[in-house]
Amino acid sequence: MVSRQKALSKELGERLRKLVFDKYNEMQEVTEIGDIRVATALVDDDIEKLVLLVLEEAKQPLSWRDLKAIFGGIVGEDRLRRILGVLKAKNEVAELSHTRFALPEYVPLSEINRVKNPGIISRILELKKGETQ
């Protein structure tokens, strides 16, 4: 069971990493100066959009380790950590125990008591209430 779960996680991770690279390349501005191509770095708002896209596509909580692997080579660890902090502060992302992150709609009800940013709990409960009606 554990090896099967790792294989699924690896497949999901690879799919999400490809998605991030594709979107990153679409968002990035490239300027050509003679034979030299210069690419601009994405601003934090763009990286926030990529993080939200990844969490939406995953449809489940992702660990910090998974997010580091998905964004490796695109966003440094410190910047990714800061962006996750901003998204938590805006109550757009829930942080669960074991340093896992999810959109409110993908936080299992059984893990509500493990949410580390309590400001988002009412939003999660509202979304869950809407699903049951």
What are the defining features of this structure?
133 residues, alpha+beta, 3-stranded antiparallel β-sheet, two-stranded antiparallel ribbon, 5 helices, 5 strands, 56% helix, elongated, disordered N terminus
Number of strands: 5
**Roughly how many Å is the radius of gyration?**
17 Å
SSE string, helix = H, strand = E? HEEHEHHEEH
Structural class: alpha+beta
**What spatial form do the alpha-carbon principal axes imply?**
elongated
Estimate the helix proportion, in percent: 55-70%
Question: How would you portray this structure in words?
Answer:
This protein has 133 residues and is an alpha+beta fold. The protein has one domain. The protein contains five helices and five strands, in the order αββαβααββα. The chain has helices at 2-27, 44-58, 64-71, 77-89, 121-132; strands at 30-33, 36-39, 62-63, 94-96, 100-102. A three-stranded antiparallel beta sheet has the order 3-5-4. Strands 1-2 form a two-stranded antiparallel sheet. Helix 2 (44-58) crosses helix 4.
Topology:
Blueprint: H1 2-27, E1 30-33, E2 36-39, H2 44-58, E3 62-63, H3 64-71, H4 77-89, E4 94-96, E5 100-102, H5 121-132
Antiparallel strand pairs: 1-2, 3-5, 4-5
Helix pairs in contact: 1-2, 1-3, 2-4
Entry summary:
With 133 residues, the protein is an alpha+beta fold. The protein has five helices and five strands.
